[in-house]
TrEMBL record:
PANTHER family: CARBONIC ANHYDRASE, CARBONIC ANHYDRASE 2. Keywords: Lyase, Zinc. It comes from the Bacteria. This is Carbonic anhydrase. Its EC number is 4.2.1.1. It catalyses: hydrogencarbonate + H(+) = CO2 + H2O. It is an enzyme of class 4 (lyase). Belongs to the beta-class carbonic anhydrase family. Pfam families: Pro_CA. Catalyzes the reversible hydration of carbon dioxide to form bicarbonate. SUPFAM superfamilies: beta-carbonic anhydrase, cab.
Length: 215
């Protein structure tokens, strides 16, 4: 397939423009026809990689009004950064040369809410209400993110764009996930430090459909 290189600035601009269309109800549904599908049968060249929550209400391709082959999307509850997630993002950087990784969180996130409840129980000294299966481990990991002073500072410097941008635990969690991706992957860190790759985080607001971007 043909591929026109795009830098991180242009990738972010494209995401902003697509989200503006989605939030205003003027979506175009680009790159979704038969010609696009056939073109992609020989390869892919996404312009950005997105680490998003698994929440069914936040599908990145729809939120950013993108089509087939535009985004390399990795999803996990609460944007947890596990080995498979890192490997997927490394593939996007090493093999597909994406110029941008965006960590996309959202308000009213169930994983973040579980972590906040866990933190409140610990602070009050009450008995912990264990969640079934692996859910408690997920809440534990996110609670450690939320309790980090470094993560709190990362959210506000610079702040998320927009006067009404969410400044809550969802933003802290997204910023922490972005930091973890860079810290845990030498491959991604090297690409970032060389200027070949940009890292950013953003928060999607469920009722407005708007995405507010951090650094």
């Amino acid at each position: 397939m043909t591929h026109t290189p795009i830098d991180a600035r242009a990738a972010l601009a494209r995401l902003r423009e697509g989200n503006a269309r989605f939030a205003s109800g003027t979506t175009r549904h680009p790159n979704s026809d038969e010609d696009r599908r056939l073109d992609l049968s020989s390869g892919q060249a996404p312009f950005a990689a997105i680490l998003a929550c698994a929440d069914s209400r936040v599908p990145p391709e729809i939120v950013f009004d993108c089509g087939l082959g535009d985004l390399f999307v990795v999803r996990s509850a609460g944007q947890m950064v596990e080995n498979a997630v890192l490997a997927s993002l490394e593939f996007a950087v090493h093999k597909l040369a994406v110029p941008l990784i965006l960590v996309l969180g959202h308000d009213n996130c169930g994983a973040v809410a579980a972590a906040e409840s866990l933190m409140e129980e610990r602070a009050s000294g009450t008995s912990l209400a264990l969640l079934p299966g692996h859910l408690n481990a997920l809440a534990e990991q996110i609670s450690r993110r939320l309790g980090s002073d470094a993560c709190q500072a990362a959210v506000g410097n610079p702040p998320l764009s927009g006067a009404d941008a969410p400044r809550d635990s969802a933003a802290v969690n997204a910023a922490a996930a972005k930091a973890e991706v860079c810290a845990r992957s030498p491959l991604i860190r090297a690409a970032h430090e060389s200027g070949e790759l940009a890292l950013a985080h953003a928060i999607y607001t469920l009722d407005t459909g708007r995405v507010d971007f951090g650094d």
